[in-house]
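R.M. (postdoc): so does anyone remember the format we settled on? I'll just put the structure tokens first.
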């Protein structure tokens, strides 16, 4: 699938400049593999207000790549407690790191800071060379980390079943008039889902990353509001649970969907991250799935038989089988939760809210749910 270029010795070509592609290039280089990382031009669309919720497995991978400890202190916030509310009493559910006997339920990370740390690490990686997307590269294995609109995946003829939810996510940074104490908050309501992720920027100890999933028309209306009108709607939606909230950044919005490629691997190629699967952000698991793809591929390649090449179709099928179950399960959970809380039907509304309260009183069920989210 790549143009011939015999005078360049390359083991793996990684296409994609995001956190998944950068992490994969670093991890493969640590195995001594020669990696070419193909990146497109940087797109400047204003400040990056995205925030990632990373689980323990993702943090472990980034730490092994010497990226985690290079992050600025104010770019990482541990989540010690999480409070989930439905759209009516008695719907409420809470989790705590203490109950789960873990250091944190998750770590909220500034997306731009993570990508900067990865970029810095790649500059010093001895076996990684970076080139443009248009430069031909001849490698036994090409790893596609280009995102849900991957052009290379399309050229390979791989189907990608992408179902749009008719929703958009609005993201922003917020500042509260009281400390967050490491508590994340989430509201599941008909027809929106609102999450407040504790953060240190722009104000240490009292900031949040906002992810608010809304129907398209309502999202467009909210994006058109001036700051005062948006803040009023936001504070009405949160009911003062996190204190008085004001905008600390511009707002950004993007469409939400559910998607999966028909195949994750083939002769000489693999898909990772959003190139392979896309889920709703309500569980904050998008990047965690992508970094789990990285870990699985690295382990698959490192354990290959000496006589088997990096692009061997059967070898890469091992990776695909390993990732099919977890990604399908997460897609099913996020899609199911979205559809459970979307309908305004009175009897369903009461059932789902009572269900939240029931789970809150079942320690075993809470541990299981937390374990899936933490990657344990």
């Amino acid at each position: 699938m790549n143009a011939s270029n015999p005078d360049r010795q390359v083991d793996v070509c990684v296409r994609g400049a995001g956190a998944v592609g950068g992490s994969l290039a670093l991890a493969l280089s640590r195995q001594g593999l020669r990696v070419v990382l193909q990146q497109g031009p940087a797109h400047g669309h204003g400040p990056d207000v995205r925030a990632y919720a990373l689980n323990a497995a993702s943090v472990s991978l980034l730490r092994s790549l010497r990226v985690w400890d290079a992050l600025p202190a104010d770019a990482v916030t541990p989540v010690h407690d999480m409070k989930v509310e439905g759209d009516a009493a008695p719907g409420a559910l809470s989790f705590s790191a203490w109950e789960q006997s873990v250091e944190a339920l998750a770590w909220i990370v500034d997306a731009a800071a993570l990508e900067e740390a990865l970029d810095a690490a790649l500059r010093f990686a001895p076996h990684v060379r970076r080139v443009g997307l248009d430069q031909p590269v001849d490698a036994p294995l090409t790893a596609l980390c280009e995102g849900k609109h991957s052009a290379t995946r399309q050229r390979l003829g791989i189907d990608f079943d992408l179902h749009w939810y008719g929703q958009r996510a609005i993201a922003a940074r917020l500042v509260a008039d009281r400390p967050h104490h490491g508590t994340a908050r989430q509201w599941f309501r008909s027809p929106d889902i609102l999450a407040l992720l504790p953060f240190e920027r722009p104000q240490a100890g009292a900031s949040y990353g906002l992810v608010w999933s809304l129907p398209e028309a309502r999202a467009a209306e909210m994006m058109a509001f001036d700051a005062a009108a948006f803040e009023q709607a936001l504070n009405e939606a949160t009911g003062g649970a996190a204190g008085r909230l004001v905008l600390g950044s511009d707002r950004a919005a993007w469409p939400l969907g559910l998607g999966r490629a028909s195949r994750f691997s083939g002769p000489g190629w693999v898909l990772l991250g959003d190139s392979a699967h896309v889920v709703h952000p309500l569980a904050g698991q998008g990047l965690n799935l992508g970094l789990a793809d990285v870990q699985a591929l690295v382990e698959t390649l490192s354990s290959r038989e000496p006589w088997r090449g990096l692009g061997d179709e059967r070898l890469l099928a091992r990776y695909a089988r390993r990732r099919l179950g977890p990604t399908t399960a997460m897609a099913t959970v996020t899609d199911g939760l979205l559809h459970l809380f979307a309908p305004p039907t009175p009897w369903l509304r009461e059932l789902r809210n009572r269900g939240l309260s029931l789970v809150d009183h079942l320690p075993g069920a809470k541990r299981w749910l937390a374990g899936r989210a933490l990657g344990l």
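R.M.: ...and that's the designed sequence above, right after the tokens. Also worth knowing: The chain has eleven helices and 18 strands. Residues 12-162+256-374 form a domain with the FAD/NAD(P)-binding domain fold (CATH 3.50.50.60).
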